[in-house]
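hiii so um. not sure if this is the right channel but i have a protein structure encoded as tokens and i wanna go backwards to a sequence. like what aa goes where. can anyone help
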């Protein structure tokens, strides 16, 4: 059997930095309150001429360069996003065109912050049915700032824009993706959503005037799901692989906010030097969080061959997932 793993990582965030002073002015709050409450100091905003596919394509180019791969070697592109360029076609089709490759399979995955892990599972299973020489691009991207109400304290302080990408291909036995476990509970879908713009509530003057195209979130309910699900995701992986927390070299969670991750690490007894947090300067970038955090950790020398990396995410839907990786040399 062939093992499959991450062989290249890349991330991209727009140049425009939005600090807490600007957010606080819209909300009429103290800028220091935002950092105390969330741990976020700034986030990025996409310029008007760009969309999710533009960010995703740049992250993909960086991942390909990191892997030493040419775009012609890619046989599959998966994009996890909840902020697509348009309702149709898939954002993956737009990324494919920007990368200049044709005649390969491309698709979007809609699992919000867990979208990257959903995409990773699909890519691994697709590769297992293809030639060992094949590669896949798994990308997470969000342009959340287009969908924020600047007066909504629950969302305006948290979300930013960014993209992360990984190349998935064959790795030596004993390395790579050990497991990807996914789940969802659609009865909780109303906890966080963009109500308008789909087939249930199409765009209209009324939907625009009512603000129904903005992200709506019940922060307390979402926090409750994460506080319940995060430790269960960790425990399940450890039990399934007969490991302990000491066997995990890095925990790479999606980035709801740094304060929540610090609390969670403390509750399970994991030192902060073994947790990757990028939300201080990016905010919550949804499906882009995990691949962007992997890219940051590799850039800073925090990932070594043989390291066990546990990635976990909880997203709108509500969706969730975990992945155990053994980093390949």
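sure thing!! here u go:
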């Amino acid at each position: 059997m062939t093992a499959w793993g991450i062989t290249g990582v890349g991330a991209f965030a727009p140049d425009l930095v939005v600090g807490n002073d600007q957010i606080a002015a819209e909300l009429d709050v103290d800028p220091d309150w935002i950092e105390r409450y969330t741990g976020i100091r700034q986030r990025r905003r996409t310029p008007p001429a760009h969309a999710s596919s533009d960010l995703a394509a740049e992250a993909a180019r960086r991942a390909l360069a990191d892997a030493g791969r040419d775009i012609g070697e890619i046989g599959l592109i998966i994009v996890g996003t909840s902020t697509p360029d348009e309702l149709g076609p898939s954002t993956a089709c737009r990324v494919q065109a920007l990368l200049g490759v044709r005649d390969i399979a491309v698709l979007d995955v809609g699992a919000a912050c867990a979208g990257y892990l959903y995409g990773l599972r699909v890519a691994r299973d697709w590769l297992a049915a293809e030639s060992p020489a094949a590669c896949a691009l798994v990308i997470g991207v969000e342009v959340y700032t287009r969908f924020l109400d600047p007066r909504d304290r629950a969302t305006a302080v948290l979300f930013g824009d960014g993209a992360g990408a990984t190349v998935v291909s064959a790795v030596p036995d004993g390395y790579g993706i050990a497991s990807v476990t996914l789940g969802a509970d659609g009865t909780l879908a109303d906890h966080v959503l963009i109500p308008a713009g789909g087939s249930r509530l199409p765009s209209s003057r009324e939907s625009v005037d009512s603000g129904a195209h903005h992200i709506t979130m019940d922060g307390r309910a979402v926090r409750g799901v994460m506080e319940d699900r995060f430790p269960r995701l960790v425990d399940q992986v450890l039990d399934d692989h007969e490991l302990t927390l000491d066997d995990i070299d890095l925990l790479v969670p999606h980035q709801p906010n740094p304060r929540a991750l610090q609390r969670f690490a403390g509750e399970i007894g994991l030192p902060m030097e073994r947790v990757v947090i990028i939300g201080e300067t990016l905010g919550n970038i949804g499906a882009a969080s995990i691949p962007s955090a992997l890219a940051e950790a590799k850039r800073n020398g925090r990932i070594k061959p043989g390291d066990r990396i546990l990635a976990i995410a909880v997203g709108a839907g509500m969706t969730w997932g975990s992945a155990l990786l053994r980093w390949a040399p």
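oh and The domain at 1-329 is CATH 3.40.47.10 (Peroxisomal Thiolase; Chain A, domain 1).
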